[in-house]
């Protein structure tokens, strides 16, 4: 009989808690929908941000390289004419005007950055030097470096041919991927921007708690029968709903406008998305626990967001960073969130992947620690206020 009463009591508590959760979630949604700024910062701002960065960074990354050059033939001879024909025939070079020009005109074009470089052919059949003229301001640029490397290889092959040596070896190129699908830079950038948008939504989304505490609303809420844990849970679920809208909207824009390719593993994506979104919501909850004003909260969130934006592999792989920075990147939660989204949205990585779960584990650790710290700070401040 006692067990039946206990079960009935527990069932009543669960129903009561569920009813509170529904009421609080409904209230959170209504408050958010009334706030036009919330829609902008939660939905439209991530879209604008992603479009800007996709236009800037994805640009011409998949197009073939071609450099415009000028060629000077100071004293036409059989050797220089042969070199001109071979160099102008290279598909990576676009010879301005299509014919040799004077050295003065070529140097004028280089100084004015109208061409990437000028090539001066040998002045006689006995001469052996080919001169490359570049603009000093562009000397370390990618185009100049590419022209220099291509021309150097061309000269080496010409030397082998002149010596009568037959090439014995050739370089072949092949790229491999850890996943079953190829990852283009557009796909890499899209998944990174989705991770960044969801992370920012979590980190900036808890600012309303600071305002509520400043106005004394949280203190009043504690004086009611409302469960503060359920209140926090309803806020996090509302943020999750925003994140779902974000990931769907950003994915559609990336695929339909920028031509990204997505090969989604549904179970892996759901797990990574939930763990990542909850972890960054917990991070925002932690920021709100010690921020006394909205300005202080936004300042902390901006600093953390800015650091993770450029150190977490959103725009370029972590492996391309300086070695002394990589250990910092390897402990940031956004690094593993971005990698997890790429694994589940491009590579179709199975949910049983060890690498995937390692990243999820790091995010869970971040979320758990920050949520516990935030809860402790809220409780500590409540006790101090009661005194």
From TrEMBL:
One of its GO terms (molecular function) is ABC-type transporter activity. It is a multi-pass membrane protein. GO terms for cellular component: ATP-binding cassette (ABC) transporter complex. It comes from the Bacteria. The chain crosses the membrane at residues 38-57, 188-210, 230-257, 263-287, 299-318, 356-378. It is found in: Cell membrane; Membrane. Keywords: Cell membrane, Membrane, Transmembrane, Transmembrane helix, Transport. Residues 153-381 form the ABC transmembrane type-2 domain. Its main location: membrane. PROSITE patterns: ABC_TM2. Belongs to the ABC-2 integral membrane protein family. This is Transport permease protein. It comes from Cytobacillus oceanisediminis.
């Amino acid at each position: 009989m006692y067990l039946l009463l206990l079960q009935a009591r527990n069932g009543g508590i669960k129903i009561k808690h569920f009813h509170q959760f529904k009421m609080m979630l409904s209230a959170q949604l209504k408050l958010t929908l009334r706030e036009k700024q919330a829609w902008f910062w939660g939905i439209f701002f991530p879209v604008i941000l992603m479009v800007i960065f996709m236009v800037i960074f994805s640009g011409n990354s998949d197009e073939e390289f071609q450099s415009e050059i000028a060629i000077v033939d100071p004293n036409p001879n059989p050797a220089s004419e042969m070199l001109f024909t071979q160099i102008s025939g290279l598909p990576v070079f676009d010879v301005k005007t299509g014919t040799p020009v004077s050295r003065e005109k070529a140097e004028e074009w280089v100084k004015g950055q109208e061409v990437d470089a000028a090539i001066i052919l040998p002045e006689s059949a006995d001469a052996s030097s080919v001169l490359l003229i570049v603009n000093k301001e562009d000397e370390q640029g990618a185009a100049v470096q590419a022209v220099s490397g291509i021309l150097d290889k061309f000269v080496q092959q010409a030397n082998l041919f002149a010596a009568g040596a037959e090439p014995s070896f050739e370089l072949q190129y092949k790229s491999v991927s850890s996943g079953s699908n190829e990852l283009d830079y557009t796909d890499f950038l899209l998944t990174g921007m989705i991770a960044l948008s969801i992370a920012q939504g979590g980190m900036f989304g808890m600012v309303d708690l600071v305002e509520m505490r400043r106005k004394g609303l949280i203190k009043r809420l504690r004086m009611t029968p409302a469960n503060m844990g359920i209140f926090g849970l309803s806020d996090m679920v509302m943020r999750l709903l925003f994140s779902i809208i974000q990931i769907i909207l950003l994915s559609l824009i990336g695929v339909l406008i920028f031509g990204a390719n997505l090969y989604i593993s549904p179970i892996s994506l759901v797990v990574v998305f939930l763990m990542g979104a909850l972890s960054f919501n917990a991070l925002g909850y932690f920021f709100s626990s010690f921020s006394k004003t909205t300005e202080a909260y936004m300042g902390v969130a901006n600093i953390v967001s800015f650091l993770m934006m450029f150190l977490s592999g959103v725009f370029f792989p972590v492996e391309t960073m300086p070695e002394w920075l990589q250990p910092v990147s390897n402990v940031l939660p956004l690094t593993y969130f971005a990698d997890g989204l790429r694994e589940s949205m491009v590579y179709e990585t199975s949910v049983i992947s060890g690498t995937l779960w390692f990243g999820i584990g790091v995010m869970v650790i971040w979320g758990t620690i920050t949520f516990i710290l935030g809860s402790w700070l809220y409780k500590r401040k409540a006790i101090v206020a009661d005194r």
